């Protein structure tokens, strides 16, 4: 067993029907961490995918090793359409890292996590580093006009009503200190699309420091988007609840 360094990064990777994307994203993450000399683990949290994602995850666990490289965690039923607190709470039980990265498994997020961990986090000793599509040279590629309007509109409404002090509230590519993420999980009550927004709002309330890194978000390579009408309605309800209670 390889010795662990004083700091370790755990990647929480929620999946649902990602059998085509999963091998590539795991390989890219493992190569990036290894090249950067960062101690890491990847925790796959599958939500009972019917497409065989669980079997692929188990194969990856055998290939990379179950202790350090990849841990496979399976949820028995489809509890989340959008990565939510339910998935992350489940994955946190297995995380051994000092820092936790949450990201999507559909290749929409850049796997160069070293720029978040070794770069921005170290630069300002931030409690949270959030990838932003709406600052600097960040952007979105591959979305139609409808999805762009929904995302922009969600962020605009949040900025007006909650003034959170961060530019991208609905993104799901972030790095947290483990103890900070645990504390936020205790405070957050939202599910689905609004969960990411509440995490930032609660972080500001608790006085945690947040750094932002511009990212290029690329629409998923394989599979279909899991954002639908129900998630949009849930977001609006959650936004109003946060406005009334914060």
Number of domains: 1
Helix residue percentage:
40-55%
- H and E string: EHEHEHEHEEHEHHEEH
Strand order of the largest sheet: 3-2-1-4-7-5-8
Poorly predicted tracts of residues: none
In CATH, the architecture is Alpha-Beta Complex
Q: What proportion strand?
A: 15-25%
Secondary structure tally, helices:
8
Radius of gyration: 17 Å
Mean pLDDT: 81
Structure summary, number of beta strands: 9
Task: State the distance separating the first and last CA atoms.
Answer: 47 Å
InterPro entries: DPM1-like, Glyco_trans_2-like, Nucleotide-diphossugar_trans
Cofactor: Mn(2+); Mg(2+); Ca(2+)
Catalytic activity: a di-trans,poly-cis-dolichyl phosphate + GDP-alpha-D-mannose = a di-trans,poly-cis-dolichyl beta-D-mannosyl phosphate + GDP
Subcellular location: Endoplasmic reticulum
